[in-house]
Design brief:
It is a single chain. The protein is α/β, with parallel strands linked by helices. Helix 6 links the parallel strand 4 and strand 5. The strands form three sheets. The protein has a seven-stranded mixed β-sheet with strand order 1-9-8-5-4-2-3, sandwiched between helices. A two-stranded antiparallel sheet has the order 6-7. 32% of the residues lie in helices and 12% in strands.
Length: 364
């Protein structure tokens, strides 16, 4: 259930408070904004709900991923292990950081298989970007322990999983940094928006600076701020933050409703013996944003997806054919000559293998 389905007076009130001041920019203008800091308020409330020390809002989930990579120092030549089933932004941000995405298999959870991750490690592996796909968690405890054992940076892409937990701990809080999205179809939406969270003050300081052209945000005079690092413009506006703030305060009720709706659907579909459901490491922590079920073979899966579509079930995907979330459909990743001069990232790697040592990466 995307949050826009329950827009109401709460969102309108927060937006009107911003418009009354005329200050849409998240920084500065202290005299005019009448003490209203919607981005700061959102950050404080999200950090509190997740039980983390620091939160920084930015323009999108994609911006959050880029910011997390920068803050963690991942860059040229570093390998980052990723799943082949994710939104393409997970891969794009690694490429734009100058790093190399290396694909490892997913398991029945539809998230990274810890054993496949370990089998994919090379001396160049710097980190793991685990995606809590479709609102439910990966085997995050095993991946956290593996990264700790191998000295790797764990970044959580929890963009689809706000409100989800694993054994009571919020998703997005197991790694060095966690990333969230508040785009138009997320449970909490700002229209466009994202967030990075961490318990590490140094990582937070880099993140909040990187997302605003390197400003250090010390003092009250923006014109006198220092620029300790290079950065990008990944700022969120006060208007977007205002909408998200009202939405965030509805999160528990939205997740509760999603879980109730999903349980009704599972009971109905589960009557058919040909159906099995995606295993979730902690059912109680599922954010319930998606319902995924399995059939015996490809033919039946395609038939079921088509039949659901004919009956008006919007968004009944056969994941193997999905155009947004699966490596199989991302030909543009292997045809990047229009992005810059030549194949600077892939070199001679064959299609389907983004590791620098062809044949070493896990099966796709």
């Amino acid at each position: 259930m995307p949050g826009f389905e329950i827009f109401g007076e709460e969102e309108r009130k927060e937006v009107e408070e911003v418009l009354e001041t005329g200050v849409l920019f998240r920084y500065g203008f202290e005299g005019a904004r009448q003490g209203r800091w919607k981005a700061r308020e959102f950050e404080a409330e999200l950090a509190g709900r997740l039980g983390v020390g620091y939160c920084h809002l930015c323009a999108s989930g994609t911006a959050a991923l880029s910011t997390a990579l920068a803050a963690c120092g991942i860059g040229a030549g570093d390998e980052v292990i990723v799943p082949p089933f994710t939104f393409v932004a997970t891969i794009e941000t690694i490429l734009y950081a100058g790093a190399v995405p290396v694909f490892a298999d997913i398991d029945e959870t539809l998230c990274l298989d810890p054993a496949a991750v370990e089998a994919t490690l090379t001396p160049r592996t710097r980190g793991v970007a685990v995606v809590h796909m479709c609102g439910a968690m990966a085997r995050i405890d095993e991946l956290r322990d593996l990264c700790a054992k191998k000295g790797l940076i764990l970044i959580e892409d929890a963009c689809q999983a706000l409100g989800g937990t694993f054994r009571g701990q919020p998703l997005g809080t197991f790694g060095k940094m966690g990333c969230f999205s508040f785009d138009p179809v997320k449970t909490v939406t700002c229209g466009e928006g994202g967030a990075v969270v961490t318990d590490d003050r140094k990582l937070y300081d880099i993140a909040q600076s990187f997302a605003d052209h390197g400003h250090d945000h010390l003092g009250n005079d923006r014109g006198k701020e220092g620029h300790p690092i290079l950065g990008m413009n990944y700022r969120i506006s006060e208007l977007n933050a205002a909408v998200g703030l009202a939405q965030l305060r509805k999160l528990e009720a939205m997740v509760e409703r999603q879980r109730a709706n999903k349980e009704v659907l599972k009971r109905a579909i589960g009557r058919f013996p040909v159906v099995s459901f995606r295993p979730i490491p902690d059912e109680a922590g599922d954010s319930a944003t998606f319902l995924t079920f399995f059939l015996q073979d490809e033919g039946r899966a395609r038939e079921a997806a088509a039949a659901l579509g004919r009956e008006g079930v919007d968004g009944a995907f056969y994941w193997y054919d999905n155009n947004w979330h699966y490596l199989r459909k991302w030909d543009h990743l292997f045809e990047i000559s229009g992005w810059t001069k030549g194949d600077l990232i892939f070199g001679d790697c064959p299609k389907g293998d983004l590791s620098p040592n062809p044949g070493q990466s896990s099966k796709l």
